[in-house]
Structure formats: structure tokens, C-alpha cells
User: Fold Glutamate-1-semialdehyde 2,1-aminomutase from Nocardia neocaledoniensis.
Amino acid sequence: MGIDSSVTAFERTRRSLGGGVSSGLRATMRPVPLFVERSSGAYVWDLDGDRYVDYVMAWGPLVHGHSHPHILDAVTRVITSMQVVGMGHRLEYEAAEAVLASVPGAQRLVWTNTGTEAVQVALKFARAATGRHRVVKFAKAYHGWHDSVYASMAADDTGEAAVPAGRGQSPHAHADLIISRFNDTAAIAEILAAAEERQIAAVLIDPIMSNAGVTNPAPGFLETIRELCDKHGVVLIFDEVIAGFRIARGGAAEKFGVRPDLSVFGKAIAGGFTQSAVVGRADIIDLVDDGLTHAGTFNGNPVALAAVQAAMELSAEPGVFAKLDELGAAFETAITDVLTAAGAPAGLRRVGSLLQFAPHDQQTSLHGTDGLWAEITAGMVESGAVFMPSGKIFVSTAHTLADIEETAALLERVLQRVPARPA
Ligand SMILES: Cc1ncc(COP(=O)(O)O)c(C=O)c1O
Assistant:
């Protein structure tokens, strides 16, 4: 066991592919991104054929594990009949009906390809519906890489002047953003009180801050935002690109009992294929018939929609979300025990099957949580388990208690080798 083949492959990749990774955030995987030859269930195998327990799960989509046979069957049936047609087809409505049947209060949807795209489409709907243009988001929340929302990624980046999150962004792109603080009811109330004067079209919120530490909304926080959005004519958008079809069949609306006007789904909606959707109120989404342009060559591609339909069937099976919660809880208990016994200054946070490694003395970061977590991920990948650089941990229905025990035993050994507080 060792990741020499990935080190060699990464060196070669860097000579043809900018940065050596296909998505910038993967560059912080330590010591190099793992190169995968095949994947099944809870495991990936590297170029040498070594097996790893996978907690990356493709950065979120694989709620039912890699290569789930139900999803593969559905896709295989369609792929030999058509690939992309640019016209109407049966799966457009069958998959849409399956999604609408899953999400409480959902009346209509439009298909998009990625989460980034779907967020932009949702914002366009909000602007068209309200005639206003500004958007409230929360410090540290990630809503895709588009300039208009990729800003203010540090906990203290609140206020009117959004902070660009990377190079190459237009200084004008964030002019519409107002940044609030998650779980700060007073702050959002103050902002929304002046919604009309401040031209606020939408509140964009990831209800569990999936990329910013993983946190449940405080009691009453989402309810208050819902009331204030109603009162001040603001569209409430849940970004459920990670949470959707992971924390509950019906997403945050089901789990927290608060209905947004629009939800953005991606990742798990298609069980590993490229698909996303904006889902919500018919009167807002029907604006596509009234001058709002929603276009895209690959929108509604039949292969991905076959996967959506199959993924919806899997998530409708009784007991799926209870199982995900139980496995998440088992992981939390087993790994917390190991961290505590080793005296590691860190714990875990969890919402269902999504967990976050949380150092006591340091903020987590979307771009890679340094210090002890970086040491752990490097040690674990050398030992046979692969984790994300940010410290997010995805558990799937394919993981077993035996996988979790194996991971805990590996972590125990890794923590004996790494200093609990690396310099
Ligand atoms: C909450 C959230 N919104 C939006 C996105 C963007 O989705 P995509 O990477 O499919 O463009 C992500 C991706 O991680 C996400 O976690």
C-alpha cells in the first residue's frame, strides 16, 4: 500500500492539465490527489489496484455509493438509445415528476447541469420575480465558483463590501451581494427590514452550511428568515446542492419544516451523473414563459435524467435516511473516541451523513483545513482511507459498520505517528 502511482500520475498530469486537477479545490488533497482506476460501493482502487475506504464520495453526489447497480441499469438502458437530443423526451417529465414528488411544496422545476449554474438560474428567477437585483448570502458559504457569489469566504467577511475569493474576479461582480452571518437572527432581520430600499431580491442560504463547518440552523433562524422574506417580498432560496437528497428525501424543507420559494439541487440528485435543478414555486419558475431566458445545450440530457429517476427511486426506499443517519452517528462515535483517546484537539460536527472535522483551535476552510487535518488525511491515504482536504466527510448507504471500524483502527495508528499538534 502506498500512493507512489498517484505521485507519478500527478507529475505527468501537471504537464498537460493546468494545475494537474480538473477542479481547483482538488489541488489541496495531501500529499497529492489520489488517482483512481475503479470504484464500487464505499471503495475506490488506485492505479496499483490498492483499495481505499472512500469518504470523498465524489465530493458529495454518491449518497448511495459508487456504481450503484440501480443507477447503472437505468443509465445503461438509455445510453444506447440516445445520448443528447436537444428536443423533448420522456425522461424530462418523468424525472421532473419524481423530483417534485420528493420535495415538499415543490410545484415546478427547470433542469440545469451543475450546482454553480443552478444557483445563477435561481438568482435570475428571484430578480425577475421581484424586480430587484441584490442578494443576501452568509459569510463563508460557498454557492459555486461563479464570480457573482464566490466571495466573502471567511467568517468575518460580513457587510456590504463583499470580499473576492480568488484572483481573476471582476471587482464589479459582487456589487449585488450583502453578506450576513449564519444563525445571527438579528443581523438578517436588520438587513431585510430595508429590503425594498436596498433592492434585495433574494436570500441565498445553505441551511446546514455544508462547506462552512456543517452546522444546524439555530431554532427559529430559518423560520424567521421565511417570515421576513414573506413580509418584505424577498425570494428565499435554499442552496441544497450538498444537503439535497442527503439529509432527507425532501431536503431541508422536510428536515427543518421550512419551505423556501426555490431550492437548488445538484450532486446527489443524479447519483453520480451531471445534473442539477432549480425547484420550487410554479408562479416563479413559470417566468421562463415570460421573458426570462433559461438555456443550455446539455440541459435535460437523457442519460443524466435516467440517473435522476433511479436516484429518486433509491431515496424513496423506506429506511434510507434513517440508515444514513445511523451510519453517520456510528462514524461520529467511533472517530470521536479515537480523537479523544489520542488527545487530539479536534472533534466532529454532523448533520446526518455529512460530517466535518472540527479543530478546536482553528477555523475550517473550503480550500483545505491545515494543521492536524492535513496530517491525518496524508497519513490515512497512505494507510487505505481517503478524505477531503476541507475536512468534510461523506458517508453513504454503501458504507458498513465494518468500514467505519476499519477507518477508526487506521486513524488510531495514524495518530500515533503524527504529532497531535503539528508545528
Ligand atoms: C452548497 C453548494 N452550492 C453550489 C455548489 C456548486 O456546485 P457544482 O460544483 O456542481 O458547480 C456546491 C459545490 O460543492 C456546493 O457545495
Q: What stands out?
A: Residues 3-67+319-417 form a domain with the Aspartate Aminotransferase, domain 1 fold (CATH 3.90.1150.10). Residues 114-116, 119, 142-144, 206, 210-211, 239, 241-242, 266 surround pyridoxal-5'-phosphate (CB under 6 Å).
